[in-house]
Amino acid sequence: MKTQDQLKDMELPAGIRERYVPGVNGLTVHVLEAGFETPKRPALLLLHGFPELAYSWRKVMLPLAAAGYHVIAPDLRGYGRTTGSDNSFDGNYASFRTHELSRDALGLMMAMGHNSVSAIVGHDVGSTVAAYCALVRPDFFRSVVILSCPFGGVPPLPFGVEGQASPNLQPLAPAKDPLASLPRPRKDSTTYFSSRSANDDMLNSKHGLRDFQRAYFHVKSADWSQNKPFALTSGTAEEFARQPTYYVLDLDKTMPESVAPYMPSQNEIDACKWLPDNEIDFYTQEFKRTGFQGGLNWYRCTTSGLNRSDLELFSGHTIDVPSCFISGVADWATFRPPGALEQMQRKACTKMQSFHIIAGAGHWLQQEQPEQLTELIVDFLQHAK
User: Which of 373, 375, 356 is nearest to 364 (CA)?
Assistant: First the structure.
């Protein structure tokens, strides 16, 4: 990995600066911040998802700062210019579980002199981390904005079973994935992202890293007209497989192979104002330098059960700070996993005070529709109680 002084300059709007914060849970965290000129402002912490960076918040940071906040966006553990983690496949991937990413968030804000955060805002993987932070430290994270990926609540532990017969303790054969048994065999993207080959598949795609990223951003955005998500209700593999192939891949396909057929035309690329060539170039240079494995290690914690086992400690607990959910009308993540959206609204978040589906947006809310997103977040913060 290149040292910090070898990194290419980041093109940022005037008023956003870069910093490096050492000594955070074993990391040196790369941070973008706005609103830093005025001391003692209330803080907003913005957590990106996969495969993004702190850079993904570049369009919303200044408007949020103009609303009176110190806005802080880090590269998460394993991403971008944050260093100190073992990002290899064979390293300690448990250090990438949601619990550790949440500890990173808390440690960063304390290191930067904040003893509380007005709101933690998370997108995609970052939404899971934000929800966990609000769940376990409501004294510190005073409200939460969940983008794209709903928080369906804490997995329950068995209750009132002490009088039942002892379970059969014989080891069971691993259950076969029902998606793999379909007439058209499939696999979920989380399964794929957990595989040893995923990093190399994407980093060294035969189509080139830049074209893979362009196709992936395109196909999960509102620009791809076939994104017409709907709630999944039956729980069957057949229904689950109705999702696009970037979420439920053909069993023998890589992610680059899955999105390559939907590579936008040059006219579509030229018309993409939310992610022009110079901005996709930045993502390409960063992931070419670091690879994807650090980010992918979080998915391994999910598929292995590590993230669930941490959550089970809070069985029966809910998010009780003011909460907001925002997603895009063309974002399939809204309905993943099945039932999570309804559980979030009914039970998991007891103060869900704001809920919005943004027109003209797919998965990349803060990049596709930054103005609408900023307005909704500021309105929520002004009325949260």
Answer: 373
Cβ partners under 8 Å of residue 187, min gap 6: 177, 179, 180, 248, 249, 250, 251
One-letter amino acid of 146: I
Q: Under a CB-based contact definition with an 8 Å cutoff, are residues 313 and 99 in contact?
A: no
Is residue 326 a contact partner of residue 319, using CB atoms and an 8 Å limit? no
End-to-end, the C-alpha distance of the chain in Å comes to 45
Q: What is the mean pLDDT of residues 313-338?
A: 97
Beta strands in 35-79 (DSSP E): 43-47, 70-74
Q: Give the pLDDT confidence of 128-148 residue by residue, as tens digits.
A: 999 999 999 999 999 999 999
- Distance between CA atoms of residues 224 and 222, nearest Å: 5
CB 140 within 8 A of CB 327: no
Q: Which whole-number Å values give the CA distances from 307 to 31, 133, 300, 311, 370, in the listed order?
A: 25, 13, 9, 6, 30
The C-alpha atoms of residue 88 and residue 126 are separated, in whole angstroms, by: 21
- Dig out the tokens for 283 from the structure: 């993502």
Using a pLDDT cut of 90, give the percent of the chain over it.
Answer: 90
Could you count the other beta carbons within 10 Å of the beta carbon of residue 84? 15
* Cα distances (Å, whole numbers) of residue 72 to 1, 14, 62, 328, 366: 25, 15, 11, 23, 14
Domains of the chain in sequence order: 14-155+305-383 (3.40.50.1820), 178-294 (no CATH)
CA dist 270 and 219 (Å) reads 16
The Cα–Cα gap between 23 and 107 comes to 9
Nearest to 54 by CA among 282, 331, 213: 282
Position 1 scores a pLDDT of: 40
Euclidean distance between CA atoms 124 and 193, whole angstroms: 14
Amino acid, res. 337:
P
Written as one string, the DSSP assignment of 332-346 is GGGG-STTHHHHIII
Cβ count within 10 A of residue 14: 6
CA pair distance 276, 259, nearest whole angstrom: 19
Structure tokens at 218: 């395109």
Q: Where are the alpha helices (DSSP H) in 165-248?
A: 189-193, 198-203, 209-219, 237-240
Measured CA to CA, the distance from residue 43 to residue 303 in angstroms comes to: 33
d(CA 352, CA 384) in angstroms, rounded, equals 10
Question: In terms of pTM, does the model score above 0.70?
Answer: yes
